[in-house]
Specification:
36% helix; eight-stranded mixed beta sheet; four-stranded antiparallel beta sheet; alpha/beta; single chain
């Protein structure tokens, strides 16, 4: 075991007791303010690439603590460096956008924007990173930050794909490792779920346009029966795909939209199927996309129709790097306690944090936010809310993660 992992001493180079005292003093002054920021963001949600008010709040906060934030070229989202002298750079990412959903909670801070709500916890992610930013800036001013922490307030995770804008703007330039937390309403507040390897799946939107000559339903033998062809495509593609991928490897192709025709006695000339393909293994994903094109051509030929498949979204699986997970684990033990660390399962949902992890090492952790004794809400449900004590705990965890990540990078240099 290297000096970096020596029990009882923090990886940043000063003892844990000193850091905990600093945290306690800081949070006793700032916790209510941070909760107020979260409630304000929750009441004023903004969907992907419309996060202008949210961006203004982030910029004003960072300016007030002496930092120099940079707004992304699209006008929403922020990158900001906290510099502590020579040394490595680690990044912390928070997503800032809301969902196009309704907020059904009966609380005074419920969404004031019709059809938009923070039902995934991005308001909490943003607030925790702001709280961590101020504490890290205090450490930098005191000469206790040995390296640079890059703050990434990312737009449009729910679209998804805002990570591409961050990358295009140089958000990963110089970054050695990147970390993020995601609210997990299945875990009680203060618990941290960790997993090495794939933690979320790839996400590809599949669109299949089917065309044929059309005709009368009394004489399908004189034309191409487009509806029957679509039925074969709808059921055949997932079935055949499942026999080409190892059954022990999680994947799913499911349709969310199937439409064609307008009259009971007319075979239509065109139809549409839309769905998503999700895989936990990058090799399975590559195979599946290629195989879908091949199978579609075969099925279309059997039914004498034309079928064209296009894909969009194009997110890989989120694959946590082993050492980065250990950094999160070490930081979580210090910030939350060893008894609060749990293994977490894999999700077939998508997450564009995966785009960062294709370029640099890093890890995503699942952060418990459910108040003990309350019903278990899932993400993307109208009643989603958090135990707000998670904010102070999240600040501690993000700061410990940044400091531990910097120390690990120095030890690897």
């Amino acid at each position: 075991m290297s000096e970096f992992w020596t029990p009882g001493a923090h990886a940043s180079g000063f003892d844990s007791a000193s850091l905990r005292l600093r945290f306690d003093e800081y949070l006793s002054r700032c916790e209510r303010e941070l909760i107020g920021i979260r409630r304000d963001l929750h009441a004023h949600p903004e969907v992907a690439f419309e996060e202008y008010r949210t961006t203004e709040i982030i910029v004003a906060f960072l300016n007030a603590i002496g930092l120099r934030p940079r707004v992304l070229p699209g006008g929403t989202g922020v990158i900001c460096d906290i510099r502590g002298g020579d040394g490595p750079m680690v990044a912390l990412r928070a997503d800032i956008d809301a969902l196009s959903q309704h907020d059904t909670k009966d609380v005074f801070y419920r969404s004031t924007v019709a059809g938009a709500a923070h039902n995934c916890g991005h308001d909490v992610h943003t607030t925790m990173l702001l709280g961590a930013a101020r504490f890290l800036a205090m450490l930098a001013e005191a000469g206790l930050l040995h390296g640079t922490v890059r703050l990434i307030f990312q737009p449009a995770e729910e679209l998804p794909g805002g990570a591409r804008d961050v990358i295009a703007a140089g958000g990963l330039d110089g970054v050695e490792r990147i970390f993020a937390l995601h609210c997990d309403p299945a875990q009680e507040v203060g618990f941290l779920g960790l997993r090495t390897g794939a933690i979320t799946a790839s996400y590809d939107k599949i669109r299949v346009a089917v065309t044929g000559p059309g005709g009368h339903t009394a004489r399908p033998h004189l034309t191409a029966d487009l509806i029957t062809a679509m039925g074969a495509i709808q059921t055949g593609l997932p079935a055949v795909l499942s026999r080409g991928i190892d059954s022990r490897s999680a994947h799913v192709l499911a349709w969310g939209r199937v439409e064609a025709g307008s009259a009971a006695n007319a075979i239509p000339t065109e139809g549409l199927l839309e769905g998503t393909l999700r895989c936990l293994d990058p090799q399975d994903r590559r195979f599946a996309l290629a195989e879908l094109h091949r199978l579609l051509g075969h099925l279309a030929g059997l039914y004498k129709v034309e079928a064209e498949m296009t894909t969009s979204i194009d997110l890989p699986p989120t694959i946590n790097e082993a050492t980065s997970v250990e950094i999160l684990r070490y930081a979580g033990g210090l910030a939350l306690g060893e008894d609060k660390l749990n293994p977490t399962g894999q999700s077939i949902g998508g997450e564009d944090f995966s785009l960062y992890l294709e370029l640099v090492k890093g890890a995503l952790g699942r952060f418990g936010v459910r108040k003990p004794g309350t019903p278990k809400y899932d993400l993307h449900q109208g009643g989603f809310d958090v135990d707000e004590s998670c904010i102070a705990l999240g600040v501690r965890l993000l700061v410990h993660t940044a400091l531990t990540g910097l120390a690990r990078s120095r030890s690897e240099a």
